[in-house]
Specification:
The protein is mostly beta strands. The chain contains 2 helices and 17 strands. Strands 1, 3, 4, 8, 13, 14, 15 and 17 form an 8-stranded antiparallel sheet that branches. The chain is globular, with a radius of gyration of 18 Å.
Length: 217
C-alpha cells in the first residue's frame, strides 16, 4: 500500500505545464479580426465593450471578446500580455469565468494616462483593484493559481519573479473557462497581444492531504 501511494503521489507532483493550443479554444463575443501565429494571439478589440456588473457604475455589460478553454479541478495558468492602449480603461487580461455573474479578469489597464495592474472580481456584483505603475511597460506576465476555493493572481515583468496582487474566492469543484480577454469601454478599439498561454493541471489538494495522511509509516 505504501509503495502504491508513493507512486501515485510522485506522478501527481510531476505534472508539467503545456501550451494551450490557441486554435482549439472557443470564442465568446468573437471580434471581427484576430490572428494566431504559433503561440501568439492578436485581437482587434472593438470599441465600447467591457465586463462589469452593477456596483459603483450601476450598469451591467458582458460584451467584450474572450477566448477560452474549459478546465476542472485545480491548475496554474499564465500568459504574457501587451497592447497598444489608447484611451481610458483600455485593458488586456487573463480571464477566469464560471458564468456571467462569477468571473475574474486580471492584466494591464490604461487609466488616466498611466498603466495599472488591474483586477476585477465579480460575484453577482463587481469590484476593482489596481496597482499604479510608475512608467509604461512593454508587457506583463499574469499567473493564476487555483487551489480549493481560492484563486491567487500574480504578476511579473520577467517571468521569473512573481508578486501576489490578489487572492479571491471562486467556487471549487466547478469547471471554469480560462483564457484571454480584452475590453475597450470608452474608446473606439485597440489591438491586444497575448503570448505563451499555458495551463498546468495541479493535483487536488484534498487528495494530496489524504495521501499524506494515509501513507504507511
Amino acid at each position: 500500500m505504501k509503495k502504491i501511494i508513493s507512486i501515485v503521489f510522485c506522478s501527481l507532483l510531476c505534472m508539467t505545464a503545456s501550451a494551450q493550443s490557441l486554435t482549439n479554444m472557443q470564442w465568446f463575443n468573437e471580434p471581427e479580426q484576430w490572428t494566431v501565429n504559433g503561440k501568439s494571439l492578436s485581437m482587434n478589440v472593438p470599441g465600447h465593450c467591457d465586463y462589469w456588473r452593477i456596483s459603483h457604475y450601476g450598469f451591467t455589460v458582458d460584451d467584450a471578446p474572450f477566448i477560452y478553454a474549459t478546465y476542472g479541478g485545480e491548475f496554474e495558468a499564465k500568459v504574457k500580455i501587451s497592447g497598444d492602449y489608447k484611451v481610458r480603461f483600455d485593458q488586456a487580461c487573463m480571464m477566469i469565468r464560471i458564468d456571467k455573474e462569477n468571473y475574474l479578469k486580471a492584466g494591464i489597464e490604461y487609466v488616466d494616462g498611466k498603466y495599472h495592474l488591474s483586477c476585477v472580481v465579480t460575484h453577482h456584483t463587481s469590484d476593482w483593484s489596481v496597482i499604479e505603475l510608475d512608467h509604461p511597460v512593454d508587457f506583463v506576465w499574469i499567473k493564476a493559481v487555483r487551489r480549493l476555493d481560492a484563486i491567487e493572481i500574480f504578476y511579473s515583468f520577467d517571468d521569473k519573479t512573481y508578486t501576489l496582487m490578489r487572492n479571491c474566492w471562486m467556487q471549487d469543484n466547478t469547471p471554469v473557462q480560462v483564457g484571454l480577454a480584452a475590453a475597450c469601454p470608452d474608446g473606439e478599439g485597440f489591438t491586444a497581444h497575448f503570448e505563451n498561454f499555458k495551463v498546468k493541471h495541479l493535483p487536488d489538494q484534498r487528495r494530496l492531504d489524504w495521501l499524506k495522511a494515509n501513507s504507511e509509516k
